[in-house]
């Protein structure tokens, strides 16, 4: 066993031990001193954080200023601890995107580029040590059974990375599938590989399920993993019915490996590697925006970083017994929260993406796929893929009535609704089934 493989095995074992916490008090006692030590080291090595935290006691780190993606990218050169210039990192990342060769590193660090779901692309840096630690943790959280068993993984992403390449070993066969390649090529490769684990964005899992239903894809994976996009209930139902397996989730983004499903299928936040504060946008619904502090990553420190995601906390404890926060669902992005004029004539009301999704799905059993895009507070476009084209007019009318009824229930004016055929193709961009395409201010008023 080489040094890297040994390190991965040790990190896998460490992640397994950390997963054994059974109460929040023990987790907090173990975690707090590690966070403080990590932040002391970050302050000594990152000019950005040293300036941001000047005069503050690291023991009071929960009161430190928050940062976001724009600030992280604007101050990238001073924020990272490896002295990497943003321009150099971006040029290398863009060249990798162009050539589809993702092996080059910069200063011994893996460089990656996020897909830009929020409207701007983000860079991430990961050291070799961090990469191996990530590998051990994700194997422990995602793989079914033991690391000693053999696993044959098919892994679909927009871009490969040394980060994902670390997973390959003698017992773990790992094949990267480029989302930009044609579907026919994927099907041929999968039929040859016959993976035991199939991991992909839900939009791609859905396409593969349709290929399996058509008889062209002939695989029987024992484990399904959804990643990189929100898992919509409609897609989940079709994927699970087709492959006869539960879909497990990985919550991974530029800012770190944030969560994974347990054996019961519940998504848990990885609170043994990240600290997540909850800024509730609706306490009654238990919906919050995560503020992330990663106390493992050091090359590009993530401290009190405000994500753009909306998560809804599970009300009842998960039967698995883990003290890690259980998430009922990932709603989508906070900037996809619908803002509609109030029916009273003044002000605006907000509508969570999950309500939009469930309203459309519930309107007709003949809807195969959909996208709902709010272009302006009074203008909504609905793309529908329907089972039978001759039924499209009545399906569209059912969706229109259901959407209007939802608006009435929440006290919002009904937007003008335009229907179009469903046109999304998985590849270079992430699927956002519910999307808002205009900005709002802090008072949730359109700007």
TrEMBL record:
<dbReference type="InterPro" id="IPR053158">
    <property type="entry name" value="CapK_Type1_Caps_Biosynth"/>
</dbReference>
<protein>
    <submittedName>
        <fullName>Adenylate cyclase</fullName>
    </submittedName>
</protein>
<dbReference type="InterPro" id="IPR012685">
    <property type="entry name" value="CHP02304_F390_synth-rel"/>
</dbReference>
<dbReference type="InterPro" id="IPR042099">
    <property type="entry name" value="ANL_N_sf"/>
</dbReference>
């Amino acid at each position: 066993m080489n040094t890297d493989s040994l390190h991965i095995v040790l990190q896998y074992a460490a992640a397994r031990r950390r997963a054994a916490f059974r109460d929040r008090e023990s987790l907090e006692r173990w975690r707090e001193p590690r966070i403080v030590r990590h932040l002391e080291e970050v302050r000594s090595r990152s000019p950005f954080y040293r300036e941001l935290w000047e005069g503050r006691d690291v023991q009071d780190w929960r009161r430190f200023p928050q940062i976001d993606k724009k600030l992280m990218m604007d101050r990238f050169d001073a924020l990272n601890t490896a002295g990497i210039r943003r321009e150099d990192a971006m040029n290398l990342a863009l060249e990798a995107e162009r050539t589809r060769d993702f092996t080059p590193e910069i200063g011994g660090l893996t460089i990656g580029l996020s897909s830009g779901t929020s409207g701007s692309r983000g860079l991430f840096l990961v050291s070799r040590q961090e990469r191996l630690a990530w590998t051990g943790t994700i194997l422990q959280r995602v793989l079914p059974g033991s690391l000693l068993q053999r696993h044959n993984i098919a892994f679909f992403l927009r871009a490969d990375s040394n980060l994902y390449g670390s997973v390959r070993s003698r017992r773990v066969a790992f094949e990267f599938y480029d989302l930009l390649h044609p579907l026919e090529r994927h099907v041929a490769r999968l039929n040859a590989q016959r993976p035991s684990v199939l991991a992909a964005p839900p939009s791609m899992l859905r396409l593969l399920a349709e290929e399996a239903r058509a008889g062209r894809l002939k695989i029987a994976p024992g484990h399904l993993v959804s990643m990189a996009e929100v898992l919509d209930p409609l897609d989940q139902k079709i994927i699970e019915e087709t492959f006869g397996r539960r879909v497990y989730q990985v919550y991974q983004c530029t800012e770190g490996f944030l969560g994974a499903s347990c054996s019961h299928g519940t998504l848990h936040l990885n609170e043994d590697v990240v600290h997540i504060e909850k800024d509730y946008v609706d306490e009654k619904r238990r919906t919050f925006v995560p503020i992330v502090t990663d106390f493992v990553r050091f090359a590009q420190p993530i401290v009190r970083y405000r994500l753009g995601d909306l998560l809804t906390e599970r009300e009842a404890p998960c039967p698995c017994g883990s003290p890690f926060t259980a998430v009922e669902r990932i709603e989508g992005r906070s900037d996809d929260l619908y803002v509609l004029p109030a029916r009273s004539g003044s002000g605006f009301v907000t509508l969570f993406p999950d309500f939009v999704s469930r309203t459309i799905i519930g309107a007709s059993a003949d809807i195969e796929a959909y996208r709902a895009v709010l272009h302006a507070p009074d203008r909504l476009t609905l793309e529908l893929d329907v089972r039978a084209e001759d039924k499209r007019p009545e399906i569209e009318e059912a969706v229109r009535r259901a959407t209007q009824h939802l608006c009435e229930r929440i006290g919002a004016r009904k937007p003008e609704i335009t229907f179009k055929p469903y046109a999304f193709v998985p590849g270079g961009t992430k699927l956002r089934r519910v999307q808002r395409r205009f900005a709002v201010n802090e008072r949730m008023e359109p700007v």
